[in-house]
Write a structure and sequence with these properties.
By secondary structure, the chain is α/β, with parallel strands linked by helices. The protein is 50% helix and 16% strand. It has 29 helices and 25 strands. The protein starts with a helix and ends in an 11-residue tail after the last strand.
Length: 895
């Protein structure tokens, strides 16, 4: 029966296999660095597939001008690339839709980590490859090891260059085949020097920096190890899918077996050292026998600490129920392809090993090809947690003994009723039922009591001579002894089953609570929600009062509590601070500062303490039983990870903000250097000419130069005004000065200001005369309209029309400005409102600052309105629509 279970294929492996068969096959040609020949090798493999009759199509191949690579493309069908216009440049990308419509058997997709041009369906090329696979198309692709996401930091440490284009490890894990394309560092450097990878100047710079011999050797090792890791996973999946009993010693895998013994920590550390030496994955296994429920709390604590230590050192931890320890260990090792097994030396006396058997001897006897490492480990103990444990409350057992007495009395009564019809030996079964009922209800003690009580009453009432404790018939003596033995065994087994059932129910409740807690934490997005959920969960499961403290501005402060409480006396503050600084418990029932009201325990991750939890109740003495301490460890570990996740998200947001600030600063400096310098150059040139050649200039020339000075001064004034407006918007200091105004008046004032800018265009104004009054800031709104007119004039050819339309509808008062320029590029309808963003310019477009439309949006939204940019539906051109809320005011022109 057991062996049949071992030979059963793994459902997970079968599901993964079915998923792979339902989609296309992915093959990755992996290299340590550019220039090793990945594309060349991929094309050779593709041509071999084509020679075998496979329909091969090139989706995208980057030849980089290498003649030998271009020669291999000859004879292969190529899907034309799709052209994308981006910032004045034409970018060619793989035409995903055309490739899917063509539906070849095999598609070649070079440079998997490539970033697609804006406006493409997917931002990354690996997403294009995944869509092809989902369509059932096989894909050949290339990838360098520095583009693997999990190795990004390692590669940056080696090369001092951080690669921005990365591919998630999940894509590598989905690969059906990975082929290493490898050459020695010396050969690659020679290829660089010969100009076969980069042009000579770039190649020399690359050799001096990225392509050093040491860097290339380290990258080769990374590529080989990442490939070996994937191959090891494929081997394990194959064995599980085909129910192959391992291990296959294709790679090293280490399994350490832990129990409650004193050498557990030494075993874990030895396993980690072995894993480092062999560079192998490792796991920690604990098999829970039926007797585990009877272990002393100290042994349970030791085992829990060892499993946590294994997790902290990077092991996968597994706990499984088992009846035969040795056989289950061998079965698990074979099923998961572990070929090194580490166990601790047994400290049992020889007579116990003879009586109970030796797990070590059984493992060695059934190990097969698995290497067994037996460690003595000495008398090592896990470091004490530094907190005195509360004694678990034991419920009084008198009622169970009373219940046992009732059960056995009922057995006597039933036996008396059946005495006339049943033989005395059959009456013993009635008493056995009473014994089992007592063991189920009360456990081992009441069950043993019922056995003895039943033996006495059975002898007294039903064995001859009756109503005495003497037994005359030898057969009756034997029957009584067998009854007593059977009753003792039955009560023991029944009590053991009852203990296991109780423990299983308790574990199920705890596991469900922990699962719901982790699910709740996963759905929280703010730190306050995480802290409140943590405080509530700890308080409800441990029946204690809880406060959570985090560091703010260099000091610890209460951030959450259940029930809500933020008062701490001096002793509690000192204990919390000590627990935070030393990453150890402090306060009530702890070794340090035990006079505090609360017990303070650190919230910690692998990087150290991130907070402190305070616990207390109204009773005296220690707070947590050993079982509660283990439960608190599980809750606090989940909470600490959730808090760290929130902090990491905040760090990422701050990094993005810093990057955006740096981008805006760079754009601002660029804009200032250009937009200040250009009008100043015009002013200085005109003023200098007037000063030096005033008498030689005609009246018309002098007027033209003076006009230039005035126009450039106005342009400079507008630029400075825009900068000041953006400063006000960014600082949140923009407070509109509201008043009731008619829309037509504001538009007319803006047109008057923009006369010089719009002089070469035809202006058409169509505003409904009976519009209601608007509650707006006239200065801000006029500036917004002026900026829109300025934008329309810049991007429209001379002689074209600029239309201004105004009306009222259910959404509010609408003002729309339309031009006849080239329109808004695809994907830029929102980006044009970003500060310093400028779309691609046409020849007739005057350079701008990239601030005008951003100011428009800031002003309009400050007044409670909204602005939308889109292309005209009837002809080329842009269309800007401003919508403002209506006010309860008289209609019509106020004049």
């Amino acid at each position: 029966m057991h062996s049949g279970k071992e030979r059963r294929p793994s459902p997970e492996a079968l599901l993964e296999r079915a998923d792979r068969e339902a989609r296309g096959k992915l093959k990755i040609f992996l290299g340590a660095a550019p220039g090793v020949g990945k594309t060349y090798e991929m094309l050779l493999s593709a041509r071999a597939m084509q020679a075998d009759g496979v329909d091969v199509v090139v989706g995208v191949i980057e030849t980089h001008g290498r003649p030998e690579t271009e020669a291999l493309i000859q004879g292969l069908e190529i899907v034309p690339r799709r052209s994308t216009d981006y910032k004045g440049q034409v970018l060619d990308e793989m035409d995903l839709d055309a490739l899917i419509e063509r539906r070849p058997a095999l598609a070649l997709v070079d440079e998997l980590a490539h970033t697609n041009a804006p406006g493409s369906r997917h931002p990354k090329r690996y997403l294009d490859a995944l869509e092809l696979l989902a369509q059932g198309i096989d894909v050949y692709t290339t990838l360098n090891i520095q583009h693997v996401e999990s190795l990004n930091d390692v590669v940056a440490q080696i090369t001092r260059i951080r690669v921005k284009e990365t591919v998630p490890d999940s894509v590598i894990d989905r690969a059906d085949d990975i082929e290493i394309v490898d050459i020695t560092p010396q050969d690659l450097i020679r290829r660089l020097q010969d100009g076969k990878v980069y042009v000579p100047r770039t190649a020399q710079r690359a050799i001096e920096n990225y392509f050093s011999a040491g860097n290339l050797t380290a990258l080769r090792e990374l590529a080989l190890r990442r490939t070996a890791q994937r191959v090891d996973e494929q081997l394990l999946n194959h064995m599980q899918a085909h129910a192959i009993s391992g291990p296959w010693a294709a790679g090293e895998r280490i399994l350490v077996c832990l129990d409650h013994g004193r050498n557990g920590a030494a075993l874990v550390r030895y396993a980690r050292r072995q894993a480092d030496r062999l560079r192998a994955p490792w796991a920690a296994l604990h098999l829970e026998a039926a007797s585990a429920a009877n272990l002393p709390e100290k042994d349970k604590d030791r085992l829990a600490a060892c499993m946590r230590l294994a997790e902290q050192l990077g092991a996968d931890t597994v706990t499984l129920p088992a009846s035969s320890i040795a056989r289950e260990i061998i079965a698990y090792a074979n099923a998961n392809n572990f070929n090194h097994l580490i166990i601790g030396k047994s400290n049992k006396p020889r007579w116990r090993e003879v009586w109970e058997g030796s797990i070590t001897h059984d493992l060695i006897r059934h190990s097969g090809t698995i290497s067994i490492h037996v460690m003595s480990g000495g008398e090592e103990e896990i470091v004490s947690p530094g907190v005195r444990s509360a004694t678990p409350r034991k419920r009084p057992g008198f009622k169970h003994y009373i219940a046992s007495t009732v059960f056995m009395s009922l057995a006597v009564a039933i036996g008396a009723l059946l005495d006339r019809t049943l033989d005395v030996r059959n009456l013993a079964l009635v008493f056995l039922m009473g014994v089992m009922a007592s063991a189920v209800k009360g456990g081992l003690g009441p069950g043993l009591y019922a056995s003895l009580f039943g033996a006495v009453t059975f002898s007294f009432f039903f064995l001859e001579p009756r109503y005495t404790l003497s037994v005359r018939d030898p057969e009756s003596v034997i029957a009584l002894l067998f009854f007593l033995g059977t009753a003792l065994i039955a009560s023991n087994l029944t009590a053991a089953v009852q203990r296991q059932a109780t423990a299983a129910r308790q574990r199920a409740r705890t596991a469900e609570d922990l699962y719901l807690f982790s699910k709740k934490l996963a759905g929280t997005g703010t730190l306050d929600d995480v802290l409140w959920a943590t405080a509530y969960q700890i308080a409800s499961m441990l029946k204690l009062r809880v406060v959570i403290l985090l560091q703010e501005d260099g000091t610890l402060s209460v951030r959450a509590g259940y029930p809500p409480d933020d008062t701490l006396v001096d002793a509690d503050i000192a204990a919390a601070k000590w627990a935070w600084e030393h990453n150890r418990p402090a306060g009530r029932a702890a070794d340090t500062l035990p006079g505090a009201k609360r017990l303070y325990l650190p919230l910690r991750t692998g990087r150290g303490a991130i907070g402190v939890v305070g616990l207390d109740n109204d009773k005296q003495g220690p707070l947590l039983t050993p079982e509660q301490q283990r439960l608190f460890d599980a809750l606090s570990d989940q909470a600490a990870l959730a808090i760290e996740r929130i902090h990491l998200v905040a760090d990422v947001d701050n990094a993005k903000l810093a990057a955006e600030t740096d981008r805006l600063r760079t754009a601002l400096l660029t804009s200032i250097s250009h937009d200040l310098k250009t009008p100043l150059a015009g002013i200085l040139g005109s003023a200098g000419t007037l000063k030096d050649f005033w008498g030689k200039l005609s009246e018309t020339s002098r007027e033209d130069l003076l006009s230039t000075v005035i126009e450039e001064s106005e342009r400079l004034n507008r630029f400075i005004g825009n900068l000041l407006d953006m400063t006000r918007i960014g600082a949140g200091a923009l407070e509109p000065n509201y008043a009731l105004h008619y829309l037509g008046d504001i538009v007319g004032s803006a047109l008057a200001r923009a006369t010089k800018i719009t002089g070469a265009h035809k202006i058409e104004v169509a505003i409904t005369p009976d519009l209601p009054m608007l509650r707006i800031d006239p200065v801000l709104f006029e500036q917004a309209v002026f900026n829109l007119l300025d934008n329309a004039a810049k991007y429209s050819p001379e002689g074209s029309r600029i239309e201004i339309r105004g009306w009222a509808d259910d959404t509010g008062i609408v003002l729309r400005i339309l031009d006849e320029g080239p329109g808004i590029p695809p994907g830029d309808a929102e980006r044009i409102f970003d500060s310093f963003y400028r779309v691609r310019k046409i020849d007739y477009v005057t350079a701008g600052t990239g601030l005008g439309l951003s100011i428009c949006r800031g002003f309009i939204e400050a007044m409670g309105g909204r602005i939308l940019a889109e292309n005209r539906p009837d002809r080329p051109g842009a269309m800007f629509t401003i919508t403002l809320p209506k006010t309860n005011s008289p209609q019509g022109n106020p004049e």
